[in-house]
Amino acid sequence: MIDLIAHNLAPIMFVTVMAMLLIGYPVAFTLAAGGLLFFVIGVELSHISSEIRLFWPLLQSHPERIYGIMYNDTLLAIPFFTFMGLILERSRMAEDLLDTIGQLFGPVRGGLAYAAVLVGALLAATTGVVAASVIAMGLISLPIMMRYNYNRGFATGTIAASGTLAQIVPPSLVLIVMADQLGRSVGDMYVGALLPALVIIGAYCLLVFAVTIIKPHWAPALPPETRTLGGGVTSLVLLLVASVGIYLATYHTVFAEMRSEVRLVWAATTATVFALALSLANRHLKLNILSRLAEQVVIVLIPPLALIFLVLGTIFLGIATPTEGGAMGATGALVLALVKRRLSFSVLKQALDATTKLAAFVMFILIGARVFGLTFYGINGNVWIEELLLALPGGEIGFLLTVTVIVFILGCFLDFFEIAFIMVPLLVPAAETLGIDLIWFGVILGINLQTSFLTPPFGFSLFYLRSIAPMKEWKDEVSGRILPAVKTTEIYKGAIPFIIIQFLMIILVIAFPGLVTHYKQESTVNPNEVEITIPTFGGGSDGGPAFGLPGGLSGSPFGSPPTTSPGDGNGQQNNGLQLPGIGGLPPLGTQPGDASDAPGETPQEQPAAPDLSQPPSFD
């Protein structure tokens, strides 16, 4: 029995720790306690099984491993982006965005649903926190949707799904942690995830459009009396065209001498400042050039879009690292809140408290994962996991599909931090052995975790929405009507179409890796066609001097004295470096007095070897 336990200690440890996590024990303490407990067991069983490589002095490595977490610059981006998102959320940016975009799409059927999807994408690109996005949109948008007779299941599903976009849209915290655990660049992870994220947003909008065609009464347009900003889309389009023209003109004229990425930044900044300045002047100077709708859309949308460009644009262009981009984003969020006069001491304190709690949460999970990992690797658990995964049928595709199912199931019970710190390091060796691009692998896992946030009955996004959706009949203060409660089953049913979209997106990314691997810089040089020619000390093959030096380096490395070729009527000298008065060195491989003449040729007198025992004569 002891022998059986010793030879199967790795699977016993893995199943035991995962079972404790699923029961609900605190993650950090469960990982650390499990690691220490099985370390003791492993040391005691190390004399039975040669697969166990644990000994007591190995515990002394833990302090250095923990310090290694604190030295990790990549993880600094987590508190920066969290702080940025919390400041923007508490400065009521989501409220302004939902109101303005809702007015913009108001005349269209499903306009509030389109607004929820687009605002969810904007919040994802600025906050990166699912809970903040879902709760903010649920509190603001859900009552309005219910007021204007939206189907409750469709409304709740749209809000919950749009909130989960924070899992995959850069600067997602999931992508930061995934890049760190995969050992890859956060910038590459952001670039790789951008196109799948845009496809998901487009698929959500297509679903809303399909609902408005098939079930138009589920998503009616806003009545005319609620469109407080009126019309005026034409002036908004004209302003957009003018801004694009200014961008192109300045890009090719004013900033033409700059590097391409710097030109892009300054040209885009110039066009944006023009649109914002015109809108502000139109509002405060009563110019009446723009409609109220165009004016409000520009003033509300440009600050968060500028912040997104400040963060993601500088990272994609290689101007800033993700950590530096996070720091700039946090500073920009403070500036925006200050300009809107919504930055107070209480808001700042709440944001700092929440950021500190999240950073400490991540740090303790990482410490527990390091303790767990040392023991698990010491009992060859990584080898057991790798062999198990490589034995799956189907090769690369079979591995990806199996991992997708496992991570999806775990995502229904565990937070993405726990999955990233526990499971991902165990999956990396098998993925590398199969030749899977790790950025591609990380994006697949990110979309998978986004799907798990939506899946009943344990989807975290559904829980967040359930916590703020009305659980009993309530009176709408605007319309004065008594509106029904939102049932939990309605929230679950509304999420199902979006879950299907997520699954289809995972299959699409697996089938077409180019959606992610476009982050790689294509090389224009074929390494198979590169020829490397090593020059010799003598003349080139064409008789020219070697190494491009005057006279070349023919014969010995020091050259030979100039001689006149026999029978050469023009008396042309041989190439060589001439040393004054020392005389020539003998050819390599000959001795003084040796004759190397070919048969039938007149023997030639060899030059006398210099007497190296005497000082040189310069006569």
UniProtKB/TrEMBL annotation:
Residues 565-580 have a biased composition (Low complexity). Residues 541-554 have a biased composition (Gly residues). The keyword Signal does not apply. It comes from the Bacteria. It is found in: Cell inner membrane. Keywords: Cell inner membrane, Cell membrane, Membrane, Transmembrane, Transmembrane helix, Transport. InterPro entries: DctM, TRAP_DctM. It is a multi-pass membrane protein. Residues 541-619 are annotated as: Disordered. Pfam families: DctM. GO terms for molecular function: transmembrane transporter activity. This is TRAP transporter, DctM subunit. It comes from Nitratireductor aquibiodomus.
